[in-house]
Amino acid sequence: MNPNYKHGALMMEGVKLSTVASVIGTPVYCYSRGAIEAAYMRYRQAFSALPDTLVCYAVKANTNQAVIGALASLGAGADVVSEGELRRALAAGVPAGKIVYSGVAKKRNEMAYALKAGIYQFNVESEPELEALSDVAAGLGLTASIALRVNPDVDAKTHAKIATGKAENKFGIPWQRVRDVYRLAGALPGIRIQGIAMHIGSQLLSLEPYAAAYDRLAHMVVALQADGIRLASIDIGGGLGIAYEDDQPAPPAPAELATLAKQHLGHLGSRLIIEPGRSLLGPAGVLLAEVIYVKSGESRDFMIVDAAMNDLIRPAMYDAYHGVMPLVARDGPCKVYDIVGPVCESGDTFATARPMPEVTSGDLVAFKDAGAYGAVMAGTYNSRLLVPEVMIDGDQFGVIRPRGSYEALIGLDTAWQAVAVTDEPEAAPEA
Ligand code: LLP
Predict the structure, then answer these.
(1) Do β-strands 334-340 and 349-357 pair in parallel, antiparallel, or remain unpaired?
(2) Residue range 383-395, pLDDT digits in tens
(3) Taking the model in full, what pTM does it have?
């Protein structure tokens, strides 16, 4: 369990979180390097039964260079969804040959950048994207190795905003058209068919949807073999969900996922790719905040902290639950709080009617399981500074993204100046 109390102080590895808060200030994200590495090794070991497996960390979960770098040094590849993420993965030391480029609509300039970098695979999601990629690759005298991301029409039984494998979702090639699109791919000059890919959603807490999707995928691979298409790689998408609530059943372990993958896909002789994000980073991170005031409302008590929806948007966006722990253990009376930030929206609420040991102004709290989809989704709404990040390693901690400054924030804006346009855009044809 990370973090936990030692002599009444909430610790991450060998560091008191209250020390980080007092030295760096709040709000601040803290990640445990040991927990990130251990979570990655659980996938590595689980999939050792399928020795040709590439674990590509889905960097969208947390793109800090120190985080990607820690995983790269253990041999992880990367799953990226934009030129920015690709640049971050390369800069952090992930070899291009271990990078998969996912995403529903890559632009031509992004394709060109990735082709020149020499990435392992593009996961292509539509015919027009495939044609554009062929065109860009041929224009550069290169060939793009591709997998088609297929949509298996499986219900991942997760939050609607992060379910991606149903026919009505924007993702992947519709199941009925998959074989035709492979035929098209085979005929395009800049394309080399390498694999097949799927991703049915995030925060999956049961193996059943995976079993259904793997089964469909296996049938498709065999059908494609009959069409003369042999696939060297099978990308099974993101990793497992995590337990955000203490009393919820434990999610399936990577070992169970690996067993399932072996059962359904192991005999096909292809390399497996898995792209975990949340399960590597989520439990390894906390967001520290200070209680600014406790305010008694008509019907409830508000704990107003100095972190807000712009720092951690998951509760506002997905009604997500994050555990909240005081940094100093308390045995005193419990109270029930609505835990909110200072941003001017009622949606800026981290928790409603949450029982907590009583707190007062100046107390410090940690939002748990905030290492994934936390800092990466942060913004500067209400002109709040981008939240800093700290990595803890043993009994030491280091800043991996400093807090910004108001000068830098305001300095992003420039004085108005007319833009000189040399090529007039073509006039729209008359109706
Ligand atoms: N691969 C692809 C193609 C993906 O779209 C995703 C996540 C992953 C891998 C990683 O999945 P994971 O192992 O993290 O479940 N912001 C949301 C989560 C969005 C996930 C989007 N795709 C949240 O905070 O819950």
Answers:
(1) antiparallel
(2) 999 999 999 999 9
(3) 0.96
